[in-house]
Specification:
The protein is an alpha/beta fold. The termini are close together. The strands form four sheets. Strands 3, 4, 5, 8, 9, 16 and 17 form a seven-stranded mixed sheet that branches. α4 crosses α9. β1 and β2 form a beta hairpin.
């Protein structure tokens, strides 16, 4: 089969790889579409020691079952899936918080991912969806579920209803874009998204109908936002989030670009700021997100860019150099 392989930092190659063999409890999917995630870019840059050269990346996918070892998962049916493969028995799993499972593994990290014609996956990780759901919507399930999970967690900490809040989103990639679309859907009228790429700012204004700014030219007014989402997670964006949030406000930290940075703990304490971290989504979030996509909550995904899998190496370069307006490039094997 054809597979896009991470061979060394800043290099992807289209190679011939053996098709996955069917294992007990698993299915083999014929991949229809797979998105390039920010974490895939992080690995491509050589910044993720968990993802080593020689690996097939990719964990945002939709596909059809090619072969199945599990009854009820029929050949030819379309599924998306949870790329987190969890134990199902630990306290977190039985509480429904399987994203925190300490024994979790992950597609595109600890096993070959979806940048290929075929991929194997435990049947328990598959997420059912309407069979006629357009591919460009179905393939956005994973990043949209990350935004869904983050916003839901935030609402427990906000002192006023979300639609009353002035909201600042840092980063206009797929998480920032889907968060902005979700926030607009639930009635947030005062929404600002900070994004360095001018092409992405135009896409945000057109599709999310929000104010999109270059934070270098238009930094946020200090202490002016009730709720801040950092969808980048860099040292500079964490600092910006603390500067932008109001006393008593909430910061939701989603992005993981930088591993560590200083946090203004004095302001956090004196201003009673709530700082929350979030990691991916639960299976319940993924199912809810599929239903929301089918209802049109996130729009028609016209901002998603599709390319053939063979153009994957160039797609990584274009994303790195900011040559695409799309917050999500999807590859089609």
């Amino acid at each position: 089969m054809k597979a896009l392989v991470y061979t060394r930092p800043n290099e992807m190659q289209l190679q011939e790889r053996p098709a996955p063999e069917l294992a007990a409890g698993e299915v083999v999917l014929r991949i229809e579409a797979v998105g390039i995630c920010g974490s895939d870019m992080h690995a491509w840059h050589g910044h993720d020691p968990r993802r080593q050269p020689g690996l097939v990346l990719g964990h945002e996918f939709v596909g059809r079952i090619e072969d199945s070892a599990v009854p009820g998962f029929e050949r030819g049916t379309r599924w998306t899936g949870n790329p987190l493969i969890t134990c199902g028995t630990c306290d977190y799993c039985v509480q429904g918080r399987n994203n925190l499972c300490a024994r979790r593994t992950m597609v595109g990290m600890t096993r070959p991912g979806a940048f290929a014609e075929f991929m194997s996956l435990p049947a328990a990780s598959l997420i059912e969806m309407p069979q006629d759901l357009p591919t460009r919507l179905a393939v956005i399930t994973e990043p949209a579920a990350t935004a869904w999970h983050a916003v839901n967690l935030s609402m427990r900490a906000l002192t006023r209803p979300l639609h009353e809040c002035r909201v600042f989103v840092i980063g206009g990639g797929a998480i920032g874009m889907t968060a902005a679309l979700l926030l607009r859907h639930v009635g947030v009228a005062r929404l600002v998204v900070a994004e360095l790429n001018p092409l992405r700012r135009q896409a945000l204004e057109r599709h999310a109908r929000c104010e999109a700014v270059d934070p270098r030219a238009t930094p946020p007014e200090a202490a002016s936002f009730d709720y801040v989402i950092d969808a980048v997670g860099a040292v500079a964006t964490r600092k910006q989030a603390f500067e932008a949030v109001k006393p008593g406000g909430v910061i939701m930290h989603v992005g993981l670009q930088d591993w560590a940075s200083e946090i203004d703990m004095r302001r956090l304490t004196l201003a009673e700021i709530t700082l929350l971290g979030t990691y991916t989504y639960t299976t319940a979030d993924l199912r809810a997100t599929v239903a929301a996509l089918a209802r049109g909550v996130f729009g028609d995904m016209a901002w998603v860019e599709e390319r053939p899998l063979a153009e994957g190496p160039q797609a990584f370069v274009d994303l790195h150099e900011g040559r695409t307006a799309s917050a999500k490039v999807v590859l089609r094997p």
